[in-house]
């Protein structure tokens, strides 16, 4: 660089370079910048993606053709990778206006209705005298819980309280060991292309179709499905809603697969400022998802969920930590324990210098005994005293229990107590 690009590196620049306000990419001086609504400056490809994104939220029918359709040229269209397949997004009333032209179309069109069979009979009548093929497909995420697409700040808004915790949750989940399921999940004597297609389609029904129902039933005004289909999903929303959605997805996926222990799902959520670039947020959530995929809980692998940089097995660790979090939160709401309990636990976790799930700073033990002993003596609530006793007993005794419940985990109890406290603290701040 010193030899080849000395001037660009060391010579002062004008500082007038433009950057795409969405992607953060520099817009070359010889390239025109664009505006879309309040968003400016934008590169042309970003502008086109925004327009397409709006259209994907507001279409009823997908028309597929192997050549351009002149009378649909004014409709939103996509030709992926210029492979010769043209996709047109239409509303039902737009199809009615061109039905006569479709009837005289020599080349067959594929007309697919998205997510609903409503008015399907009328649609069949519209195209019954044509060469067109009619079908139905599921598409995850083309609905909104409000009249317009909310900003990330609006998704996270709770109250006007200055210290309310406002964070965007970026959630990614996918099915574990999918390759192994296709390779060894079907008895070799019964394998066939149709069985593989059925298995693949069954996954897609859940992620492209049923996931919309989960979203509708979990405060849709506070989350948006960015993508869902095949065997994975990408959702953004208020952080506590994304955790709630992830839990519901896992529970319903388990029922959908008839509690088959070989069909599990892992995921992770990254908590970010609403102004944090979403492209980087996607990378952060991918790290959390990977953390869950690599998690081991004794002899159990994957089947986990990562939250606050900690992966928890869905069956063994997550329920125990969530129950402890709920108890801490309820005692705090009832004023039985103070915020000082949470802050002390978090400080103990920091000072413990845990390495490979073992406390290496042994001073932590007597700090816990001293701090919590004083706190217990000052407390007048029986449940609070019992909670503090359990904390001292489990941390100082290296117990295999969490809040008096046996748990399978490689984590030191202090790691899980600290996670529960941090989780409870964030929920208390969010719901102020």
Question: Care to give the gist of this entry?
Answer:
This protein has 432 residues and is α+β, with helices and mostly antiparallel strands. It contains 15 helices and 21 strands. The protein folds into 4 domains: 17-52, no CATH class; 59-137; 166-315, Reverse transcriptase/Diguanylate cyclase domain (Alpha-Beta Plaits, 2-Layer Sandwich), CATH 3.30.70; 319-430.
Q: Can you walk me through this structure?
A:
The chain is an alpha+beta fold and 432 residues long. It folds into 4 domains: 36 residues, no CATH class; 79 residues; 150 residues, Reverse transcriptase/Diguanylate cyclase domain (Alpha-Beta Plaits), CATH 3.30.70.270; 112 residues. 43% of the residues lie in helices and 19% in strands. It has 15 helices and 21 strands. Strands 11-12-10-13-16-17 form a 6-stranded mixed β-sheet, with helices on both faces. The protein has a 5-stranded mixed β-sheet with strand order 6-7-5-8-9, sandwiched between helices. A hairpin with a 6-residue loop joins strand 1 and strand 2. Helix 8 packs antiparallel against helix 9, helix 11 crosses helix 15 and helix 12 packs antiparallel against helix 13. The longest helix is centred in the middle third of the chain and has 24 residues. The radius of gyration is 27 Å and the shape is globular. The model has no long low-confidence stretch (mean pLDDT 89).
